[in-house]
Amino acid sequence: MTEFDAASTAVQAALDAGARYADARVMHRRYESMSARNGDIEELTQDESVGLGVRALVGSSWGFHAVPDLSDAAARDAGRRAARTAAASARVPGPPIDLVPSEPVTASWASACEVDPLGVALSTKGDLLVEATKLVAEHGADVAEGLYQVWDTAKWFVSSEGHRIDQRIRECGGGISATSIGDGETQRRSYPSYRGQYGTTGWELVDSLDLTAHAARIAEESRALLTAPLCPAGETDLILGGEQLALQIHESVGHAIELDRILGWEAAFAGTSWLDLAQLGSLRYGSELMTITIDPTIPGALGSFGYDDEGSPAVKRDAVREGRWVGVLAGRDSAAVAGLDHGGSVRADGWARLPMVRMTNVGLEPGPHTLEEIVAATDDGVLMDVNRSWSIDDKRLNFQFGCEIGWEIRKGRRGRMLRNPTYTGIGPIFWRSMDMLSGETVSWGTPNCGKGQPGQVGHTGHPAAPARFRDVRVGVRA
Amino acid sequence: MNGPHARSEPDLAGQVIELVRRLGGPATQAEVVVTRADVALTRFANSFIHQNVAESGVGVRLRVHADGRTAAGGGSVVTADGLSALVERTLAAARLCPPDPAWPGLAPPAPTPSGAPVDEATAYAEPDERAERVRAFVAAAGGLDAAGYCRTALRSSAFANSAGHSARGRTAEAAMDGIARTGGADGVARLAADRLADLDGAVLGARAAAKARAAADPVELVPGRYEVVLEPAAVADLLQNLSFYGFNGKRYAERQSFAEPGVAQFDPLVTLVDDPLGGSGLPFDVEGTPRGPVTLVDAGTTRAVTHDRRTAAEVGTVSTGHAVAGGATWGPMPRNLRLSPAAAAPAAAGPPAGESEWVGGGDLSGAVVDPDTAALVAGVRRGLLVSDLWYTRVLDPKSLVVTGLTRNGVWLVEDGVVARAVRDFRFTEAYPRALGPGAVLGLGRRPVRQPDRVDGVWWEAPALRLASWNFTGGASG
Fold this sequence. Notes:
Number of helices of chain A: 10
Shape of chain A: globular
Oligomer: heterodimer
Order of helices and strands of chain B: HEEEHHHEEEHEHHEEEHHEHEEEEHEEEE
Mean pLDDT of chain B: 93
Helix content of chain A: 10-25%
Low-confidence stretches of chain A: none
Largest interface: A-B, 86 and 101 residues
Strand content of chain A: 35-45%
């Protein structure tokens, strides 16, 4: 029995059990990660998981069942159970559910991959991490860490509407960090990002990072931070590096425009959103420099795919156009509830999880400046880069971020290094204060986005470049 | 279920060890854990069930140590071919790894304790039974919007290693977590239990609704230090962060933890015990080490941190049974931590015999829905009652400075009485300092078990009164 056969069997069983719509995904994922610490390999793990998840719509209710078994009997049983679970939901029924149209397609899609990351010898990958972390330790860090992760996912999707899609998506990435331990605190510097940079790409991404070339710098910076002056407290101009701005986009825009949150479907756990659908198309989200797109078609970015997990094709759309809120991340059911005409942003983190609204690549279109031009144009401010901590309220308004490193900016020049830089604000007020934006865009990958119950880990991408924000509160501390 | 997935966990574990022996040779050390999981979750929002899911899965985790090198592998494919492939690729990976001079060896044979009894009705609960609790929660919310979940989980696990040690265990858990919402204000009720029968959707829904109604029309207060009464859901966040960053044996070994065994780092009212068998929990860890209660803080004095075999060897002690998959990177940490309650009842009396402690009788209503909290609030001259904490993140792991927000209700308390609802605050606080000597002004007498995002992980605490909590910003920034 092929994977498509198993999925088709599950769908048919759900229909036979009373579902008015059903879809099923078979997923086969291989995962490999290796970590090193202070010049030694710390852990090597290789996992392989295969299974089937089937989703059934009965009346106004969804049911979902997943099994690690692709036999005919298991697939039929999963389909029946999904329908039965959906029927149980009718004890507490909601409004009718429709699905916005998704043209049934038969298609195959694969992400680009120059160097198969699982084909690179383990010894080569291990040597890289050993060498890089040894260098970090030799240059003074107390704890030197290195990590890479690889996901190789094949999936086969079938729906009762006639979708039949197979995809192969290869993702990988990695990074290094240096931690120095002082008398009552620790300081960390990472390259290129905390836990690394990731993409829908091959091992060429890790090669391009040139980890060893940055080992000495981050070690020395982590030690220097132990004695650097604290980031001053107060309101000032804030320049954010691209890596930090990527997370700012993720937390204060990406999650806020998820339609399931706007509709209240994530209320108890992930939270809701400050956005009101009645203001879609008119709300001023940020300054005119702010154009945010939802674009799963970006080659190599971590949120890229050919089709989402409902069979909708990858399409680029606007979320915020010149500061005005114009778009959402949606699935076929949430879009129908909201009266919108498209989904396309639904994914699951494995065969055992229900597909849900997820960020794809949500990123900031580039601006006209360079970072150096922004610094040169700033009389008094702070430059912060590389995220250290992140927190935002359940409506995605009040945020506080900490960065690994800061520098004071005086009269257009970068001055002293600053320790424990933090900044805080309210999303739309913050975005409206953006007055300079660089064009030095990088698509940062976030492989650890948590959402949903049972918990799911999403992979998202965030094109971002350095930018300046006026009169931001910085230096919050205990 | 037919086919390979019908074979028992001990059979599968034994087969993997035999394959390692055959393919890797008798000198290869190996340990394997096979876990079968049936996890189901009924999720509701806007007062209806919108997601209703179930997963039946089996996972195999293998770690081998051959010729001084170590590698781990895992998977869900338990056919004969699948297990052979797992063993072959894990052995191959180990051969290509650099030497592992800190390998601590395998757990020796040892008796495994009995876990908490498994309630079969919970283990095999039907979707209708979860849906019925959701229906009761929604009905008790009395027209307020309700959202949350009801979860049941069964895990059956077998361990075997090439040193001759084997163990097996089963655990079941149920949890319910819901909010009621009105006018932008939320109230929460959250509970984990060994038995689904112990979760009463109506009681939880009524509690959440009472708190939501009491949270309406909040005012914004000036940020600053306030005395606080934290309800068990909020205290759970303190326990989780203390566990992950403070009582983590790896962080301790690397001097990244605040923990200093033998030092009175906490208030004398603070006693913390990690008690994996005190509720739903397997009786051994992924290295096969038997699990049991570990006292981490005894009347304010830090006594221990948790270890797996590797961190224990590093600091010259023994494993406390806290090894987890991936723990070489993250470290061994408590995941079933209990803050011991007050030894005697606080000022207020408990509920009358036969009356629920969750929604007490008499004057217990609105923001305060249990006698524990009422007693602690009664002692506050001016402070805040906090239901829940949200999105907490560590600014510095060693000092354990954490930022986050209040959620699901916060109220101003004046002269021992809840005066009015307050808008959510952001805080930035060092958790060990907040619980330090002289900082704890009172404890409730009844601990309430709080579920984690992952079944099998729970945090149990009574309400807690603290002298000071550093609120650094209001909802307007």
